[in-house]
Structure formats: structure tokens, C-alpha cells
Amino acid sequence: MIIIKLLQAIFLLMLGLTLPALANDKKIIMLGDSLTAGYGLPADWALPVKLNDYLQKTFPNIVVINQGLSGDTSGGGAARIGESLSQQPDGLILALGANDALRGLPPSLMRDNLSKIIEAHLAKNIPVFLVGARAPNNWGPSYGAEFDQVFTDLANQHDLPFYPFLLEGVALDPELNQGDMMHPNQKGVAEIMSRMGPAILEFVRAL
Q1: pTM for this structure?
Q2: Catalytic pick from 25, 33, 34, 142?
Q3: Using one digit for the tens of pLDDT, what is the confidence trace for 156-176?
Q4: Does 53 qualify as catalytic in the annotation?
Q5: Quick check: is 34 catalytic?
Q6: What span, in angstroms and rounded, lies between the C-alpha atoms of 178 and 163?
Q7: Which terminus of the chain has a lower count of CB atoms within 10 Å, N or C?
Q8: Domain annotation for the chain: domains and CATH numbers
């Protein structure tokens, strides 16, 4: 039976035809900053690549597209909405905000930018998985509380699957970070995957 299907596939390809997409074909975009882009890591250790490997154990034909841009803020991500939508993804993993915090940008501005990204994708029936960030302590507790609340509020407002902190269990651990103590090393990426991977798998199952 397998041989027959293979011969059918070869025949269709010879005719210039394509096989119907398998039911588990999915395209996921991860929109983020240097933490998504894989700053300081070998290309095959960028978070979207490892996420792709992880998800392919269940969905062999899934593709996770790396739309991480080093230094990007929520405003930069909002400016890239068209780029994301043009690829017609089945889902979006939104992981922006870390650079907003590092620069001390107003949380209200981040809220507006993230809302634009979320609403633009939901309007096209593209589900969104929201990944949160945390503000450094140097901006004070008031800023940190307001910043963190943005992600919780957006997740609740739009009923989004939500992972509160991308670097949970990794942040400030010298064993899991590069020399700058801001970007995960390979061990750090593996730790992120072990913690966040199952939640994203459930997100993909629901697509």
C-alpha cells in the first residue's frame, strides 16, 4: 500500500501536480526580538528552530518561522504586522516587550502596540499565543508592576493562551546565559523549551 502511494505521488509530481496538504500542515510565526532571533547562538539553536524540532515530533509538517529582530520593541513589531500577515500563518507566537522594558518605555505604549499586533491577527482569524516579559528592577516597583500587568490584561481581554515570562527559570542564572547575562545560551534555550514547549504544543493542537 505504501509503495502504491509513493508511486502515485511520483506520478503526480511528474505531471506537475501537488499532493493535498496533510491535515497537520501548519505554519507558525514567532514574532520577537533578539531572544527569538537567537542572538549569540548557532543558527540551529535559535528558539524558533528548537521549537520547530519539538513540535515536529507531533506535527511532522509544521513550520515555525523566525521573525525575531534584535533590538526590536513592541513598536517595531507593530510596524511588521504586514510582514507577518502576508505569510498567512496558522498561528502567531508574540514574544515582544523585553526591549521596551530595557529602555524604560511607557507600559501604556507597549500595551497599545501589542494590542495592534494581537487585534490585526485575530481579525484574520489567526490565533495568538502571548509570551510575557519582565521589567528590570532598576525602573522601580511601580513601573515593574504596571509593565507586568500589561501582558496579563491583554491575555484576559482577548482570551489568549499565555506564558507569563519567556525567561522563567533562566533569567540571571550564569549557567544558562551568555556572558551578557541577558541572552540564554544553549542550555538556557533547552530550559525554555522544557518549560514553555508543552504550552505551545497545546496551542498548536487547538489550531
Answers
A1: 0.88
A2: 34
A3: 999 999 999 999 999 999 999
A4: no
A5: yes
A6: 23
A7: N
A8: 24-205 (3.40.50.1110)
